[in-house]
Amino acid sequence: MPHISALLRAxxxxxxxxxxxxxxxxxxxxxxxxxxICSADEAANYPARPVRFIVxxxxxxxxxxxxxxxxxxLSQSLGAAFLVEQKVGGNTNIGSAYVSKAVPDGYxxxxxxxxxxxxxxxxxxxxxxxxxxxxxxxxxxxxxxxLVVRKDLGVSTLEEFVTLARQKGKALSVASTGTGTVSHxxxxxxxxxxxxxEWTDVPYQGTAKAITDLLGGHVDAIVAxxxxxxxxxxxGDIKILAVTTKDRSPVAPGIxxxxxxxxxxxxxxxxWTGLFAPPGTLGPVVEKLASKVALVLKDSATVQKLxxxxxxxxxxxxxxxxxxxxxxxxxxxxxxxxxxxxxx
Length: 344
Description:
Structural class: alpha/beta
Number of domains: 2
Radius of gyration: 26 Å
CATH superfamily of the largest domain: Bordetella uptake gene, domain 1
CATH topology of the largest domain: D-Maltodextrin-Binding Protein, domain 2
Order of helices and strands: HHEHEHEHEHEHEHEHEHEHHEH
Strand content: 15-25%
Oligomer: single chain
């Protein structure tokens, strides 16, 4: 009987090699076909059980309203339950990290704002990677931010506010909806790009108390989503000086943009809410979700509910949301690092 070493040294016939390669190629091809069939079947049957929308901020806030509005519309459209569940904490990091690590089957989804992108630099370890840790489904809503001042601050235009900011420095107080939020970082970026001295940042937990203090004269100004201020501005209780988007806001078309009112012609910050799935979620499931969301966001009832809180429907699909995320991460990284705002 030949020694095993002799067998190992023996040449393998070319025909055997080719037959093995052919068999392997057929096996791989069969696997890929089977996977595509399974993916198509799962997408066709999706959703086969209740879907959870994880909202990482408090009940009753704007993100919660968006999630419940879209969940209700999808439940009616697809005939399956879409449920909203709060997982609050860590400036939305707890709920976001939970979804990033969830089973990628399309039944646990995240509804979050652009704070998801600013947290990537604000925190050394937010618990997720917003670029690789989610599958972007679609943007749900968007809205302009605004720079708003108390009525007796003595300014009526953004140019006058800039002059006042140069004069007052730290004596000027500017509120936001929380440290590291897009509300906060938009103000910081404006200050940086206008080369203004530091003012006093006053972070709040959300907009309600911030608006109350603005109306009461306890803070001089605030940067936040414009829908929060339209009614008070109409009554003369506060003044909206400018909006943060490149285009004027449909809820206040008479208010100029920062790009119009200053030399910052490329200034553009839109406040958005997006829908995300765990990484590895099947492409056909993501595409079906995106297409169904796009349809419900065109429904008149959904549009009216969102308009009631000053939001515009989006529904532009996975690629548009992914581009927005990437752009925001780069933008806020530069702002945060320059201002030395990063925390543990």
